[in-house]
Amino acid sequence: MTTTLQRDTHRSAAMASGLMVFAGVLLLIAGILDVLRGIMAIAEDEVFVNTQNYVFEFDLTTWGWLHLIIGALAIIVSIGLFKAAVWARVLGVALAGLLIIANFLSLPYYPVWSIVAIAMYTFVIWGLCTARKDDFAPTGGTGGRSAHHM
Description:
Blueprint: H1 2-42, H2 60-82, H3 86-105, H4 111-130
Helix pairs in contact: 1-2, 1-4, 2-3, 3-4
């Protein structure tokens, strides 16, 4: 009985750790792509759609700087996620939420990528919110296993 409970606890911790890595990798990739998207917008590249009469119409350069800055922050936060930092987890959820809003508002300028980015950031939030804090308890220096697993 105890062995089964220990195995389930270990499996739960491994799954939570896997979700954190998944969210970190996805946030890193999406952050890099947002930085590149920002650079394209600042350079006023012609890959963007020109939409008339959009309620949230902003200058393309403004959108570029916004995506560049937030994308760079996403890269920094993803590095913190690889180190399992609590601040990175909290900022990751907040940043992914902001990026969902930013991508929604920029739908008319780059519609397909905006939808893909919204989906990616939704998975980041899911990965960061699914893992429990209990699953990241200190291991006690026993090579990755808690003392009660010995």
